[in-house]
From TrEMBL:
Protein name in UniProt: Bifunctional diguanylate cyclase/phosphodiesterase
Start and end residues of each EAL domain: 23-276
UniProt source species: Rhodoferax saidenbachensis
């Protein structure tokens, strides 16, 4: 297949492949969707490995597309990043998550919410300002917010990441390194980053039952994180066997379909109150 990335010219090629054409359509729809607010945040709980009690939720964006149904962020986040729409979408996500934290507070639920940040958001000079504005507007406690940044993004431009993490931690929000284990962060770098949490990538969790290597890596990561005073969350936990191994390895929190899929805020509230099915 020929290269299709980047140039405007490629968009008008008659033999353009279906994938590219779809991206362009998505891009056009996405602009409208941002104006029309066709997005929703769903929430997936994280639970303490020892007690199974909820420790917080991760906000995951969905697009209620008028004709194509509910679309996954895997489909549209890369498109939003590529076409410069992630700033607007990301701001909506931050604002909506803060609004939900406030709504839960009003219901007497002190819920911690984790928000994903993309590479372009992290490189926006006014990110910290936008976040503090949303926190102030919704009158929420900043410690209830965690921002998740993937390890590869955090590593990409170490200096600017350090600066941004410093700005963010000064606001009082928490920081987490997502998809940990897929990049090659150095120990000293992690110490300087002011992160409080590592999320072990699902690929390691999947291999836990079958691979002694995966178990050794996860055990080492948890040990290292604990030495550094970091909390460890395992993502994508689907089986009881995975849960048992992770618990034995002293993983702090677990997240995955074994406990719950991402849910609407209403379902999330019910789940917390204990009348989920
Ligand atoms: P992520 O941050 O690694 O989020 C975890 C993904 O794994 C979510 O997919 C979640 O639904 C899924 N997941 C959770 N438990 C399990 C499990 O047990 N098994 C399997 N197979 N999957 C599980 P989702 O919601 O489709 O999100 C995909 C990615 O899109 C996220 O990966 C994140 O990188 C990105 N994303 C989602 N929401 C946002 C957002 O608001 N902003 C930004 N910038 N990115 C977002
Ligand atoms: Ca995440
Ligand atoms: Ca992740
Ligand atoms: Ca992942």
């Amino acid at each position: 297949a020929k290269r299709t990335g980047g140039s405007g010219y490629a968009f008008f090629e008659p033999h353009m492949n279906a994938g590219v054409r779809q991206q362009i359509e998505l891009q056009r729809d996405l602009r409208l969707a941002i104006e029309r607010r066709e997005f929703e945040l769903h929430y997936q709980p994280k639970v303490n490995a020892g007690t199974s009690l909820i420790t917080g939720v991760e906000a995951l964006v969905r697009w209620r597309h008028p004709t194509r149904g509910m679309l996954s962020p895997v489909l549209f986040i890369p498109v939003a990043e590529r076409f410069g729409l992630i700033g607007a979408l990301g701001s909506w996500v931050i604002d909506e998550a803060c609004r939900q934290v406030a709504a839960w507070s009003a219901q007497g639920m002190r819920m911690r919410v984790a928000i994903n940040l993309s590479v372009h958001q992290l490189r926006q000079d006014d990110l910290a300002k936008r976040i503090s504005a949303a926190i102030a507007q919704h009158k929420i406690d900043p410690v209830l917010l965690t921002f998740e940044i993937t390890e590869s993004v955090a590593m990409e431009d170490a200096e600017s990441t350090l600066q941004m993490f410093e700005d963010l931690s000064r606001i009082g929000v928490k920081l987490s390194i997502d998809d940990f284990g897929t990049g090659y962060s150095s120990l000293s770098y992690l110490r300087r980053l002011r992160v409080g949490e590592l999320k072990i990538d699902r690929s390691f969790v999947q291999d836990l039952e079958f691979s002694a290597d995966a178990r050794a890596i996860v055990e080492a990561v948890i040990g290292l994180a604990h030495v550094l005073g970091l909390k460890v969350v395992a993502e994508g936990v689907e089986t009881a066997a995975q849960r048992d191994v992770l618990t034995r390895l002293h993983c702090d929190d677990l997240q995955g379909y074994l406990f719950a899929k991402p849910m609407t805020p209403e379902m999330m509230t019910k789940w917390v109150e204990g009348d989920d099915a």
